[in-house]
Amino acid sequence: xKLAATAAATTKAEAEAVNHDMRxxxxxxxxxxxxxxxxxxxxxxxxxRDQQGVVASISEIIRRNAGNMQTCDLFVDPxxxxxxxxxxxxxxxxxxxxxxxxxxxxxxxxxxxxxxNLHQQYDAVQSEVHxxxxxxxxxxxxxxxxxxxxxxxxx
Length: 155
What we know:
Layout: H1 2-8, H2 12-18, E1 40-49, H3 54-64, E2 68-77, H4 80-83, E3 92-101, H5 108-121, E4 126-130, H6 148-154
Antiparallel strand pairs: 1-3, 1-4, 2-3
Helix pairs in contact: 1-2
């Protein structure tokens, strides 16, 4: 009889009032899911002379602002030293880092300022932050002849 009354209960309070010694049959009524944080994805492109501490500095900026690094592509181009005609120039370090962050906690102006300081610290050639969510989407148009093989190649 108690079990039937508990099964018919529609709220947590009703289930607990009918049967104190059994767990509620609908446990999702007892808990609510926490709200998820709103995060935005950003991409940082960086290029400078190869030197120690660059990767640590990039990851420290992201960590200090409660960001989460998602991907980090790095490479050092040793041929860049000889391709520009100067035999004594050092290899060039390149990185592309994708990270998620909360734009309410790390405002866009502060984000740009933090990476600008990194640019100055390492005398970088390039230090750009792209936030696709905040930037206008680029539109692309494709033109091809009506010949079937052209359309098939594009698809």
